[in-house]
Amino acid sequence: MQIVILNDAAAVAAYGANIFAAQLQKKPTSVLGLATGSTPVALYQELIAKNKAGEISFSHATSFNLDEYLGLTGDHPQSYRYFMNEQLFSHVDINKENTFVPAGDAVNPVTACKEYEAKIVAAGGVDVQLLGIGRNGHIGFNEPSSGLRSRTRVKTLTKATIDDNARFFGADEYQPHLSITMGIGTILEAKKVVLLATGENKADAVHAMIEGPLMAACPASALQLHQDAVIVIDKAAASKLADLEFYQHIEAENQKLQAHLATL
Question: Is 138 a catalytic residue?
């Protein structure tokens, strides 16, 4: 893991956006793995600004989202398809036919999961996958106890996740308790993974992911196995790490190395 600790949430979003922008500049036909939730919104705003400024283009890119609520159609205001259209797709030059989100209204969800996996493979795999992390350590909707080799599948949401997401639903609005999510095994096959976390409420999960043992109780700990995982966090989210100065020193040395390699 590469651990990047920044001052605040705005810096985290800008850093993450720069990784995605560099990927699109290097490979315009990139396959992007995208995420929903409050943390990625600022990153998407950065990418929209870069697109409008002509710095990057999504016109030849393909995207796959991590997850979707089971039982919601794509035009439902709480669906992740709707979220992605509102927060990114409708504001950049991406071809929406090349944007894929699990089918929350699938007649046969099990078949839909297998088809989603096949589409990712047919696209050549995900080049860079964006992740957030839940307070209980979940990535995507891979809740604690998820298998580390799991594939795209239907998952039951834990009470903690349902409670955390309740703020997005009205008091009388139906809130799904099931989802379709990429599996941990699917996520680990991405060539690069970028996880963003901000705020003190994520500090326990960040600590478990980085310094805890590899365990199903913290699904994000599986990123310890990934050869190119970048964890971008603010100081609040990093507050329970054992030695902040150590991680900051390592990152500073890494930046020096990258700068040196760029001159060769």
Answer: yes
